Amino acid sequence: MNFQLTSLRASSFSILNSQFVKSSPSLKECPKPDMPEYAFIGRSNVGKSSLINMLCMNGSLAKTSATPGKTRLINHYRINESWYLVDLPGYGYAKVSKNIRKDFEKVLFNYLCKRENLYCVFVLIDSRIPPQANDMVFIRRLGELQIPFAIVFTKTDKVTQKLLNDNTKTFITEMLKTWEEMPHYFFTSSTTKRGREEILEYIEHINPHCRCFSTP
Prior knowledge:
The chain is of the alpha/beta class and 216 residues long. 29% of the residues lie in helices and 19% in strands. It has a 7-stranded mixed β-sheet with strand order 1-3-4-2-5-6-7, sandwiched between helices. It is globular. The relative contact order is 0.21.
């Protein structure tokens, strides 16, 4: 799979309205696929809920579990009445049985493969640590299934610049062992709001046929 890397300007768009719609245990119970959809996923404790809240500037939108990895449903949030942000069950599960883990995977990949209005999957990677095997396996599977995705490095405020550079370089090196080039990637911090405008602009950039945002 090839990715075209483009230079994106800082976003002038805003999320003016964000609201929880529903939590669905399976694809068939998800909201009607009548708006573009952008999904976020990552291993346990990668900072997914915090990132979603930061993007939407709503600290109580996505609930942060006291036990990482407890997201077991497909959570839909309506943004500006024109697109969906989706919080997906992670692939680095909490301590659950093998059967439950298989059920998670079945629900997840059924959604990823069959959700017709899914435009992009944002895969969250913890910037504080080197590439993890389950991250690379999941990304490789997205490629095999030809599902569009982008990489989001999280928690960049909690690591030194040198370590961030080292971990990013190692991650890119690992990716390029099997990929012709890197997908688009972002550096983020839920604390400093780093990367917020870039991600929102990217969503607007890959969805030119639908007005997903409103200007203040």
